[in-house]
């Protein structure tokens, strides 16, 4: 930093000091900003169909929490196809929410679950 003072003079120090203090102020202000109101999108809690409600044990849930609980159930009951991990082998309980399918690809899960979330206008 000593070379910067020799090359740019004292003005360099003043500018760098101003830049450091303004950067500190902006990061501190954004870190303490209050959170907004209710969650939106996939984080919003919405009513679910009776079939999904029975599976999850609740009548309202966010999409992210529903997918997490379904994946917990799949992993707990070892329902992933051992030879193809992208495939889920459905038991009787999963068939109730996956339209009676015996096998479901893991990319299909969100699509098949979307019909269980009741749209509100």
From TrEMBL:
Coiled coil: none annotated. Residues 41-119 form the DM2 domain. PROSITE patterns: SWIB_MDM2. Transmembrane segments: none annotated. InterPro entries: SWIB_domain, SWIB_MDM2_dom_sf, SWIB_MDM2_domain. SMART domains: SWIB (SM00151). This is DM2 domain-containing protein. The lineage of its organism: Eukaryota, Viridiplantae, Streptophyta, Embryophyta, Tracheophyta.
